[in-house]
Specification:
The protein is of the alpha/beta class. Helix content is 38%, strand content 16%.
C-alpha cells in the first residue's frame, strides 16, 4: 500500500518570533517535495502566530493536550481549543512527556483517544530507553505502549505512529537504518496480529531520534520507515534536506 511520506518537525521549547520567521523563510524557500506531508510542532504560545505565516504546504501541530475538553487543569490545553484555533495536529506521548514529566501509558492513551474524538489528528510516540534496549526489551516496551493506545481508540485512520528510541534522542546516537527498520517491521507484525492487516499496511510509522540531513536518506530507503519526527534539526535549514530524503 502506498503510504504518503510524513515528516514532522518538533520544535520543543524553542523559538521566538524572530527565529520562527527565519524557520518559515527557509520552509518557503524550499523547495519541499510535494509528495511529502509536512507538519511542524510549535510551542503553544506561538501556534496561531506560526499558523498564519507558514507556507500552505506545511501544516501545524501542538506539542501536547490534555485528556478532557475543559476544567480545572491549570496550564493545560484541550483538543477543543486546538480545533477552535484551526490547529489540526498534536504530538502525544513524546519521550520527554513520558520520562521528564512522568506521563504513563494509560494517560497518554487517554489523551490520544480524546484528541481523536475531538477531531484532532495525532502523532503518537513510542520508544524504549537505553537500559531497556540493552536488556532486549525493545519489543516488549513498544508493544506495551502501542497496546495501551490501541485499547482506547476506535480507529488508526488519523494517527501517525512515531517510533523514537529514547537513547537516540538529542544524544547524537541514531539507530542504524537496519535497527530502525527491524522495529518498524515488528510493529507492523504486531498490528497484523492484534488489529488488522489493513491497518498494518496503511498506518504510517515514522522514525525519530537524531535524524539529520546526513542520515535521513539511508533511513528513508527502508521499506517500513514512512518518514521522520525531527527535533533540533527541524530548527535549521537542513530540515529541507530531511523533508526531501526520498528524492
Amino acid at each position: 500500500m502506498d503510504r504518503k511520506f510524513f515528516v514532522g518537525g518538533n520544535w520543543k521549547m524553542n523559538g521566538n518570533k524572530k527565529e520562527i520567521n527565519e524557520i518559515v523563510n527557509f520552509l518557503k524557500a524550499g523547495p519541499l517535495d510535494p509528495n511529502v506531508e509536512i507538519v511542524v510542532g510549535v510551542p503553544s504560545i506561538y501556534l496561531t502566530y506560526t499558523k498564519d505565516i507558514l507556507p500552505q504546504n506545511v501544516s501545524i501541530s501542538a506539542q501536547n493536550t490534555y485528556k478532557v475538553e475543559k476544567g480545572a487543569f491549570t496550564g493545560e490545553l484541550s483538543p477543543a481549543m486546538l480545533v477552535d484555533n484551526g490547529i489540526p495536529w498534536v504530538i502525544l506521548g513524546h519521550s520527554e512527556r513520558r520520562n521528564v514529566f512522568g506521563e504513563t501509558d494509560e494517560l497518554i492513551a487517554d489523551k490520544v483517544a480524546h484528541a481523536l474524538d475531538a477531531g484532532v489528528k495525532v502523532i503518537a510516540c513510542i520508544g524504549e530507553k537505553l537500559e531497556e534496549r540493552e536488556s532486549n526489551k525493545t519489543e516488549e516496551v513498544v508493544y506495551r505502549q502501542t497496546k495501551a493506545i490501541c485499547d482506547k481508540i476506535k480507529s488508526w485512520d488519523n494517527v501517525v505512529l512515531a517510533y523514537e528510541p529514547v537513547w537516540a534522542i538529542g544524544t547524537g546516537k541514531t539507530a542504524t537504518p537496519q535497527q530502525a527498520q527491524e522495529v518498524h517491521d515488528k510493529l507492523r507484525q504486531w498490528f497484523t496480529k492484534n488489529v488488522s492487516d489493513a491497518v498494518s499496511k496503511s498506518l504510517r510509522i515514522i522514525y525519530g531520534g537524531s535524524v539529520t540531513p546526513d542520515n535521513a536518506k539511508d533511513l528513508a530507503k527502508e521499506k517500513d520507515i514512512d518518514g521522520f519526527l525531527v527535533g533540533g534539526a527541524s530548527l535549521k535549514p537542513g530540515f529541507v534536506q530531511i523533508v526531501n530524503a526520498k528524492q
